[in-house]
Specification:
Residues 190-288 form the HTH araC/xylS-type domain. The chain is of the alpha+beta class. It is built from 11 helices and 11 strands. It is globular, with a radius of gyration of 20 Å.
Length: 291
């Protein structure tokens, strides 16, 4: 099953692996919230991943078997009925048990809203939790997987809606203690993000943003760190590189012109930032993701 936007892979007759994934999308591309991948896998004994950073928010629900997780120097034994979460910047390693390898369903997603919403749950601090008595995580992930497997023409707006409902449910069921949603701070943050999205190609964006919104640079820095776990400059660079990725895929414009169009006055600076974010040069990215 395949479309211009995503594809589904079934690896074998036993359905040990079944994966739905967006095509040609990287975590560095700009988005408020987007589903990147969802799938089910019955792992082989000792199957492992990492140690590395996923670059996406990733959540697993374990149907059966067991395994282990190491994330940011913390170790967990995980068994059936448990949920484990890896944030986009977490350094993680996980491994299926050699005798009773796990079978799990997982989801990968990304975007600025993903970071904000997850920070209102206890999962970024605890990493591993039991599913709720009503099986919320299990049922929700299976519903999303069923939606993408059943309808090859499902649109991304429907999927994003399902993802918002799922993340909202996580906030309700796994709330971070003593944390209240500060609507004023979130309003400021939304306004700051909108400013970057509209003015990312201009020079001195952060200074202009502080002046335009009448906020101190220190307060802006605190908001981005608290809710997005990045600095304003890191977010700006990520958004610029995301726009550059789109231009590289969708146009034949010269790389130097793309660099200037997304806010880099020097092509060399653009090359360094692009390689740092994507692990590829702009030319390599264009060739790999040619439409």
């Amino acid at each position: 099953m395949q479309t211009d936007d995503y594809y589904v892979r079934n690896y074998n007759r036993n359905n040990d692996v079944c994966v739905w994934k967006q095509k040609n999308v990287g975590y560095y591309e700009s988005s408020e919230l987007s589903l990147f991948e969802i799938g089910v896998e019955k792992c082989t004994p000792g199957f492992d991943w990492g140690p590395d950073r996923k670059g996406f928010h990733m959540l697993h629900y374990v149907f059966s078997g067991k395994g282990s997780l190491m994330v940011n120097d913390r170790y967990f034994d995980i068994s059936a009925g448990q949920v484990f979460y890896i944030a986009s910047n977490d350094f993680a390693y996980y491994k299926a048990d050699a005798e009773m390898p796990w079978k799990y369903i997982w989801i990968r997603y990304f975007g600025t809203k993903a970071s904000i919403i997850m920070n209102f749950t206890s999962l970024p601090d605890r990493f591993v939790m039991n599913d709720t008595a009503d099986g919320f995580v299990n049922c929700s992930l299976n519903a999303i997987l069923k939606a993408v497997m059943k309808d090859s023409s499902v649109n991304m707006y429907s999927l994003t809606g399902l993802l918002y409902c799922f993340l909202g449910g996580l906030v309700d069921r796994f709330p971070k203690k003593d944390t209240q949603i500060d609507s004023t701070a979130l309003g400021y943050l939304d306004a700051l993000i909108d400013y970057i999205h509209l003015n990312y190609a201009k020079p001195n964006v952060i200074t202009g943003m502080a002046h335009d919104r009448n906020l101190s640079r220190s307060y802006i820095y605190k908001l981005f760190r608290q809710y997005l776990d990045v600095s304003p400059s890191e977010y700006l660079d990520g958004f610029r590189i995301g726009r550059a990725c789109s231009y590289l895929k969708e146009t034949n414009a010269a790389i130097s012109d793309i660099a200037h169009s997304v806010g880099y006055s020097e092509t060399a600076s653009f090359f360094r930032a692009f390689k740092r974010k994507t692990g590829m040069t702009p030319h390599e990215y264009r060739v790999k993701n040619a439409i």
